[in-house]
Amino acid sequence: MRRLPPAPVRVLSGLLALLLASAVALLATGTPAAAHGTLAMSTPADGGTVREPLTTVQLYFTEKAAANAYLTITAPGGARVDNGWTYGEPKPLDKPVREYFLVNGVFEPREYTTGFPVVVTVAHLPAAGQYSVSYLSVASDGDAVRGTSTFRYTGRPTPRRRGGARRPTSRSRRCWLPSSNTRPPGRSRRPRRRRSNRRRRRWCPRR
User: What separation in angstroms does the CA of 24 have from each of 21, 42, 54, 143, 184?
Assistant: First the structure.
């Protein structure tokens, strides 16, 4: 069996490598991203710098976030400084966002020009540095929507606001169950009355 000269072998190898690279590039560009409900913009902007104290962070998605969406704000030291979130008023996006939908085996583009915000409350800003805003939601097609936006804060630390934390529900309150020989703290002893077939009452301290 005759061997090919070295030069034709190198040329043939180069052509095969070129064809392989072209096929990979074609596959990469031929299948568009089909994510829905993506993050379109945020306030503060991703990677931006904030010099004055802020009390909220707004994230604008291409569709309304799920009611059980999970959002957090993490301070430079790793502590969470978020305090719940609410829906905001939709507003026009700075730049339209294009998403692709698979229809009859073909990806069709759709452009979104309106942002649907969630407003995350900032409890306080304990230090200057980079803050991370993470989100996890579910799009209308059932796909998970997750990601992180960051901003750098260069202002002075702010104290934690009083009354900012959520109050526990009635189920989490500590209630005192009286026994036959004890009484609620701070209450005087009263004549005991006989009660038949009645449940004992729980005494909960006033807030």
Answer: 5, 34, 46, 26, 76
Tens digit of each residue's pLDDT (9 = 90 or more) over 162-181: 654 443 333 333 343 334 44
What's this model's pTM, rounded to 2 decimal places? 0.61
Token look-up 């994510």 returns 35
Residue 201 falls inside a structural domain: no
Q: Which region, left, alpha or beta, applies to residue 55 given φ > 0 means left and ψ of -120 to 50 means alpha? A: alpha
- For residue range 67-111, what is the model confidence (pLDDT) as tens digits? 999 999 999 999 999 999 999 999 999 999 888 877 788 888 889
Q: Which amino acid type is present at position 74?
A: T
Residue 68 in tokens: 């059980």
7 falls within a domain: no
Q: How far apart are CA 182 and CA 184, in angstroms?
A: 7
Pairing of strands 129-138, 144-153: antiparallel
Residue 66 maps to a domain: yes
CA angle 152, 153, 156 (to 5 degrees): 165
CB 144 within 8 A of CB 110: no
Number of domains comprising the chain = 1
Q: Are 133 and 42 in contact (CB under 8 A)?
A: yes
